[in-house]
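so im writing up the methods section and need the N-alpha-acetyltransferase 40 record in one place, dumping it here so i stop losing it
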Amino acid sequence: MGRKTAASSAKGKEKRLQRKEEQQRIREAMTVVAEANKLENPLADFPVFQKYNKNGIVADIIYRKSSDLSDIEKKWALSLTKKNMQLKYEQCSWGWNEPKKVEELYDEAARYLIAKSTNDGNYLGFSHFRFDLDEGIEVLYCYELQLDNHVQRKGLGKFMMQILELIAFKNNMKKVALTVLKNNTNSKFFKAVGYELDESSPIDDEEEAFPYEILSKINKRLASTLPSSTISKAHNHLQNGHGHSHGHSHLNGHCCPGHHH
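--- predicted struct ---
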């Protein structure tokens, strides 16, 4: 075998350097996520957002770790999710898998914002979210946003998403991301509040039609630190309608089939 040329040697060195830089970036991202997961109450930094009073709704916004949910709160969260989403799951290729949903909702990594009526103590809605790595990028992933029927379209959902964004961006997450079912007409709400098709969202082709899409909102303060491929792919995705199959991974080993109302 002949000796390597100077050009091939330089190219190999450049690839090794790129791998090292990527590994270092992922290590740093893991550290950021780990620090966020140590927080006792990320809502504590935003006292103004712990109360909602608008459109006839007066509610307290409460933070809970999954491990701190009461049995009543666990049953309520599952019941509300089932009421809002079971039929939509059953009408697409995923189907409704209650044991899997229970496991997801009560996972130790799950975090909750709960809206509770100040007047009568009734539960009104919740968001289930996690600090995680998504394709090597530190994100706050919103698994669920579920509201009871009588408080929908009154600004509470938008308010809760604003809280998630504040929590995410204060704690150096580079994106807020979420998965939505295409057959859920309520999901257009997320695009109305500034979420765009994520570069990781799969595109239907002749072989497969995907029942979901992935949306995200980038932390503008940290946009320059995103891998260039992420930004360019996102741009091309929106401009040209091209993307790639959903293949992201999470630190805790779970994917993100949380579909939002």
